[in-house]
Amino acid sequence: MVSIDLVFFIRSLLFPGFLFILLMSLFYDWVTRKVEARMQNRVGPNTAGPAGIFQPLADIVKLLAKERLVPHDVRSLAFTLAPVLSLAIFIFTLFFLPIDGSTTLSGISFEGDLIVILSIITLANLFLFLAGWASTNAYSKIGASRVLVMFLGYDIPLVIIALTPAFLANSLSVSTIATSQSIPFLFLIPWSFVLFLVTLQAELEKDPFDIPDAETEIVGGYETEYGGTGLAFLKLAKDVQLFLGSALVVELFLGGPYGPVYFDMPALWFTIWFILKVLFVVILGEFIANIFARLRIDQVLSISWKQVMPLSVVSLMATLIVAFWVLPIIGVGG
Questions:
Q1: What is this structure's pTM?
Q2: Secondary element (H or E) of residue 65
């Protein structure tokens, strides 16, 4: 019993659980800032640690050390809990994904957990909406309403596109989908990969879909009234959301953490492959964010309902053709 409790403690709190998730989220935040700086001919973080790698951590520590100020007439319960709950939900969702070859907690994976993961992500986005809705600032409410518009417009195609690798693997379990990819599904259904990446940019509120933040239009969106610990939790939630979204791409389209194993150390190598694959997706997403200008809100809605939604249905139909006619011929799939 003691050994089981010790394993549970290590996997849930240290690796590949809470501490690992936070550190990797901060690392990928640093990567996005360095890539963005390089593409904009800037230096980027370069002071805290080698090449500024500790800058995201320094920013969080600085915010946590600041005095917490709450504006008058806010909905205090929602204003206080929304950032914490959104962060907790994003971290919990990562527990369902195999990182070192198995999920963080043994037995947490089950048939249908892909649907649960997508539902939980929607719930976390709802708490981000509540963070702005609870504020008294008009800009915060505008940003919050745009969050609601975004995940109403892009959650449906995201779910539809996420089902395409499930059909190829003949399973709704993320772990099973990852282990079924003797050939990464990126090469079998590249159209779904591209659509999922575009929809993920909208879910992450990254350019060209960052209308909920839109610093030049609404100051800082739903974060406007936050400072100190509240802002720290919101920033961490966005970093973990980036890690979660990129990790989900890896599990569904890039074969999860699986790859060549050397020296009979599978857990180590699976973790390394997972980190590298997520790094590839993060850099690819940041590249997309920096080559496109921000869209107007009417353009975002038009793209969602008139283009992404129909294309997601077409993508699902094309994937069914691949699953039922192409894969049996080449002998690949679940």
A1: 0.91
A2: helix 55-65
